[in-house]
Structure of VOC family protein:
Amino acid sequence: MKVTLISIPVRDQEKAFKFYTEKLGFLKKKDLPLGGGNRWLTLVSPEWQDGPELLLEPGPNHFEPCKVYQDALMEAGMPYTQFDVKSVDAEYERLTKLGVEFSVKPSTMGTWKYAVFNDTCGNNIQLVEEL
């Protein structure tokens, strides 16, 4: 058994696609129409193109419990998921210059460094670096 797909809820797939590719640097893997203006839209890391795909899931637009959960996480300031990076400080600097808003600046907890940003699509995302 292995993980091949990870879903992240987004309220606007096109906006999310632009943010995740233009700001975060992910690459488009699949983009298939599903009807009703929805797409099977997946991205991959440029560093691991055969790795797990990130599905930009329009769930909050079609399933109220998904929207409630997403809103609750945002209100609590909790990340929906995390992405590992080589250097939290370097990514923080790069993304800040691109206009990405961070709610938690680079911080250290034990053997980990982390920061949290808003993906503009309803989610807080945590960057993590193992020290």
The CA atoms of residues 28 and 43 lie 4 Å apart.
